[in-house]
């Protein structure tokens, strides 16, 4: 996603993991540390539970998915722009190259406007995905990109700008003041109701792999200001206790407190890495120490040297779930790099993300051939 803090050197990440290792024997966070009221909150899965869960899925591989006709999460999920034809077509392309899972972002505002309809649309999406033998990893909150958002018609893409219309969830609205240290009680109550409603409705849905509670907490320069809300998300998730695991992926080595909490409280370990394979492998080796399944929920940025050709085979060999960012080039403009806009538009010499053009033709035939060979579709 949007990495305001550039990929952190491996030693910094190791420092964060070293701090966590001192806490590994501690009891997982419970209501005494993250709850305002006493409720039944399950503990983090044991390593044995996590690994037993992982064996049922085989090697997970797919993309972070949004249909090419949607600029952001709201345009994907609102009733007036929920595009089942495009979703069906594009997930068909995913099936054709052997992908078996997709990571998909939600947004609380689409639920707030129409809770029942939102869940119906989630079910419709899951039905379409399941028809294509594709499971789903849903994402709740997100600290990336634009801070403000509204329901209804979404903005048009800004020419040549990566993810120009993507929106945070909940963004600054969660805070009661400009210091961003106190929650707005109404917003917090809404998020709790939303999270618990969705989790309860789908808690035993076997089409869902995992709940990613909070994408890149601390991004947009929030840093530790995101930690209390991350704690709330894990508290609410454990109160519902879905059959699927709960996680939040580590992504920046200098966010020591966030990393420590995420790794200590996730049932399975998820992470992001857009580095060259040598650095990516170092991170894998460090995370293996925790004895839990690993799922890479974001990778592949061609201009940074993170490629299908050098990362995806490594993830398969390590039995690590592999979700690259971007599937079909569309309104998110993720063929353009994070910090290299092309104000006049046009096609960059090298796409940053994405696999297919809007007409279903591969951006690079050799990449699709490689993916198919790794997934057994050749």
Automatic annotation (TrEMBL):
Gene3D superfamilies: Glycosidases
Endpoints of the signal sequence: 1-23
A UniProt-annotated Pfam family: Glyco_hydro_2_C
One MF annotation (Gene Ontology) recorded for this entry: hydrolase activity, hydrolyzing O-glycosyl compounds
UniProt KW keywords: Carbohydrate metabolism, Glycosidase, Hydrolase, Polysaccharide degradation, Signal, Xylan degradation
Domain (Glycoside hydrolase family 2 catalytic) ranges: 188-316
Any single biological process term in GO: xylan catabolic process
Protein name in the entry: 1,4-beta-xylanase
Origin species: Chryseolinea soli
């Amino acid at each position: 996603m949007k990495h305001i803090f550039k990929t952190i050197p491996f030693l910094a990440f190791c420092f964060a993991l070293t701090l966590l290792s001192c806490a590994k024997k501690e009891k997982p966070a419970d209501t005494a540390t993250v709850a305002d009221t006493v409720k039944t909150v399950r503990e983090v899965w044991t390593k044995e539970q996590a690994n037993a869960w992982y064996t049922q899925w085989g090697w997970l591989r797919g993309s972070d998915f949004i249909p090419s006709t949607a600029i952001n999460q709201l345009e994907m999920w609102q009733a007036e722009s929920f595009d089942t034809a495009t979703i069906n077509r594009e997930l068909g392309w995913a099936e054709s190259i052997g992908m078996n899972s997709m990571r998909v972002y939600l947004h609380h505002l689409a639920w707030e406007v129409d809770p029942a309809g939102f869940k119906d649309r989630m079910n419709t999406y899951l039905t379409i995905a399941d028809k294509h033998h594709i499971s789903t990893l849903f994402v709740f909150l997100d600290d990336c990109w634009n801070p403000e958002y509204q329901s209804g018609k979404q903005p048009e893409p800004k020419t040549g700008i990566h993810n120009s219309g993507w929106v945070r969830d909940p963004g600054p609205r969660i805070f009661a003041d400009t210091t961003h240290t106190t929650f707005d009680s109404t917003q917090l109550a809404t998020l709790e109701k939303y999270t618990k409603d969705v989790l309860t409705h789908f808690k035993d849905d076997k089409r869902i792999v995992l709940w990613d509670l909070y994408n890149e907490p601390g991004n947009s320069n929030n840093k530790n200001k995101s930690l209390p809300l991350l704690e709330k998300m894990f508290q609410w998730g454990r109160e519902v206790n879905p059959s699927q695991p709960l996680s939040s992926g580590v992504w920046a080595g200098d966010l020591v407190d966030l990393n420590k909490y995420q790794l200590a409280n996730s049932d399975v370990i998820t992470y992001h890495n857009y580095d060259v394979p040598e650095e990516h492998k170092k991170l894998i080796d460090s995370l293996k120490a925790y004895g839990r399944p690993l799922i890479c929920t974001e990778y592949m940025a061609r201009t940074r040297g993170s490629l299908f050709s050098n990362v995806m085979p490594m993830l398969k060999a390590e039995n690590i779930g592999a979700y690259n960012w971007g599937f079909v080039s569309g309104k998110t403009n993720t063929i353009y790099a994070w910090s290299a806009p092309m104000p006049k538009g046009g096609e960059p010499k090298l796409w940053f993300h994405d696999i297919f053009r809007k007409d279903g033709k591969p951006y690079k035939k050799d990449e699709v051939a490689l993916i198919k060979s790794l997934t057994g579709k050749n």
